[in-house]
Amino acid sequence: MQGVEIEELTVSSSEKCIVDNEITKLLMKGLIEPTNQESGEFISTIFLRPKKDGTFRVILNLKRLNEFVEYHHFKMDTIYTAIHLMKQGCFMASIDLQDAYYTVPVCPNHRKYLKFSWRGQLYQYSCLPNGLASAPRIFTKILKPVYASLRNKGHISFAYIDDSYLQDDNFEGCKTNVHDTTTMFDSLGFIPPSDQLFYRALERDKTQALKLQKGNYAANMTLSQDALADLRWWIYNIETSSKPVLASQPDMVIQSDASLLGWGAHSDGKHAGGPWGETEAKKNIWPDPKAPVNKSFAKDPGGISRGEREHT
Questions:
Q1: Residues 90, 168 contacting (CB under 8 angstroms)
Q2: Cβ-count burial of 123 within 10 angstroms (0-12 exposed, 13-18 middle, 19+ buried)?
Q3: Which residues pair with 43 in a beta bridge?
Q4: Which of 157, 220, 228, 285 has its CA 20 to 30 A from that of 106?
Q5: Could you tell me which residues come within 8 angstroms of residue 282 by beta carbon, excluding any fewer than 6 positions away?
Q6: What is the CATH number of the domain that holds 18?
Q7: Domain assignment of residue 171, given as a range
Q8: Neighbours of 88 (CB within 10 A)
Q9: Which distant-in-sequence residues (6+ apart) come within 8 Å of 70 by Cβ?
Q10: CA 245, CA 237: separation in Å to the nearest integer?
Q11: CA angle 201, 202, 207 (to 5 degrees)
Q12: Is residue 204 in a domain?
């Protein structure tokens, strides 16, 4: 593959400072390295992408390179895998690995395909960059033995690239799952997140307290009534509040139809129908599509706990 003509990211003066800082960080971490032009290289552009914490990440634009990357089908767990594992009363946790792709080194002979230019200097990635088409498959295959080992310990665990889903029937079991998972990641050279839980109401209170205390982080702060109310709700309701995340199979399937003149319904070989009553016929809106179901099959509609209704 022959690289395209060298072009650089065009940004404002303030954004140039951001790119400079991010490239310095990448160099200090050993994730990129200075290089020179060579035969067969592929030079891509870069762009800035904002992160959740308000900072930025330099991304290598590999759209052109990916056209030459051969695709290999592979199996990947998704959110639906987690949903089918969930059950009422279970405890769940998630671990997002920090700079996950960057922990995977790239063969020195292949780094020439991962180049970019900034301020007239060529750089190349020494590790898996974000945006490479083959990166999700490579990283998923690397982590498969890790999660297989955790499951052999009795844990319910799986991953979606660098995000993990951990589950147990009780709090202590989930806590052990988190401990075993982070310990294994740490021993393998991965970096589990060290950030504390972010709660918006508490952050607002903290910001206000810092203003009052003139930036003194050691000073005591008072929580607002809104923050206290939210925290109390979680304390008192976290183990009792639940809502189905997966629709169960209906106990009964009822098909119904209605017009301005009458109604009809069908279920399990049984039929019912007829004209609207005098009061119902005088309504100046289209009849309630659930009315045929209630009139024909539901003696006490309030007692129906589950149902699947189709109005045709």
A1: yes
A2: buried
A3: 115
A4: 157
A5: none
A6: 3.10.10.10
A7: 13-194+243-297
A8: 8
A9: 134
A10: 18
A11: 100
A12: no
Tell me the whole-structure pTM to 2 decimals. 0.66
* Paired tokens of 245: 């995340």
Assigned domain for 89 exists: yes
- Positive or negative, the CA dihedral 192, 193, 197, 200 is negative
Whether residue 312 lies inside any domain: the answer is no
| Interstrand relation of 115-118 and 270-275 (parallel, antiparallel or unpaired) | unpaired
Rounded to whole angstroms, how far apart are CA atoms 259 and 1? 66
User: How far apart are alpha carbons 122 and 116 in whole angstroms?
Assistant: 6
Please give the single-letter amino acid code of residue 180: D
Q: pLDDT-derived band of residue 6, with 50, 70 and 90 as boundaries?
A: low
Domain count, the chain: 1
Rounded Cα distance between 282 and 217, Å, is: 69
* Tokens, residue 170: 């009780």
Task: Show the CA angle centred on residue 53, arms to residues 214 and 163, nearest 5°.
Answer: 140
Q: What is the pLDDT of residues 7-61, one digit of tens each?
A: 666 667 778 888 889 999 999 999 999 999 999 999 998 888 887 777 888 889 9
Q: Could you read off the pLDDT of 183-216 as tens digits, one per residue?
A: 999 999 888 766 656 667 777 888 888 888 888 8
| Rounded mean pLDDT, 110-132 | 93
Nearest C-alpha neighbor of 277 from the set 265, 262, 289? 262
Contacts with 30 (C-beta within 8 Å, 6 or more apart), sequence order: 126
What one-letter code names the amino acid at 278?
A: E
Cα–Cα distance, 222 to 209 (Å, whole number): 8
Residues 184 and 157: beta-carbon distance below 8 Å: no
Q: Which structure tokens are listed for 119? A: 């301020």
Residue (of 61, 56, 62) closest to 21 by Cα position? 56
